[in-house]
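Input chain follows. Return structure tokens only.
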Amino acid sequence: MSFESEILTSQAQALRHLPPNTYLETDQVEDELLLAQLLEINPALNPVQWLQETQAETCVKCLFWQLLDSLRRNLVGLKRTQAQANAAVSLAELEAGLGYRLNDQDLKLLKSLVYSHPLQADAETLLSIFWRLKRELIPLAASQFAKPDLELRAELLSLPPQTDPLKWLGENHPQYAAESTLRYLIHQVFPRSRRVAAERLPPGEFYPKFQKIACTFGGIVFYLSRFYTMHEVSAIELSFTIRKRQARHFDAKPAGDAGWRGIPALCDNLGHRYLIGFSGGELGVVFPLKWELRFAVYPAIVESAKTFTLSFDNVLLTVEERKIHGVHPEDDSHRYYELPLENLKWTVDIAALRRQFPGFY
């Protein structure tokens, strides 16, 4: 199972054990129906595998829609950059993220993607949008799609005209299609707006930083810097310091971006589980590295809970140390380090926090 699948599986399992009366928000009936089916499967089954085996066509269409929307946004950036020097581009074209040589039919077709949904969109319409986007984006330099997360989009654009992109995705990327669909459903329940709420730290006098709530894993002391609830979301902030002697040096840049990686889970003493997602943080770039990580929790941890247990499996910290020698970027040096912590598990006494900081919750 891929690391992404493990994270999504953990979140899907949490959906089965949310506190009573948790509101599961979905935009469309199709989303609600698929989510309901997912929650009814045997708990022993892997949700990604179940989607791949029983909802293959839906998953492929969902992935295809997301890729098209990403390509459309690529086109938005390109055309808006070009439009800065060309006042002749119409407002309608800019609003649709489109560009030159587009007739009314093209505009209507491409705008339909903006107002559609992944599980609801018509396959024929998506194919028509793809071929139009392909004609517009082929002239882009290969560097536009150099990052790993863009490689699949680049592959799509390079498909020969006789290849059906939906069939190609189903044959070559069935697991990724299932992962993308499950990620989409979870994001419907835990949308970006809730994650953003967790990033906005309240004033310190109301939600003070804790000083002595700590645990040690892998030789690193983790502090619970903040824990608070705002509206329907709880937020957790962890802080810790890494010293160079604790990390393993790499001569070449490791795969993926520098940062925190782990499979999150959060439960309380009442048996409830919660959706938890990384919502931001500050990562140091010079040793000793001081990191702060914020996680959004949905729904907010219930007031009747006495403790909660926060765990992360297969934790891996990837560090990019930067030493700036001058004003020219080429003079800067980058060194890469990795620090595997395996599993982190931490039980926090909420009742004690309430006694120590009355009214914080």
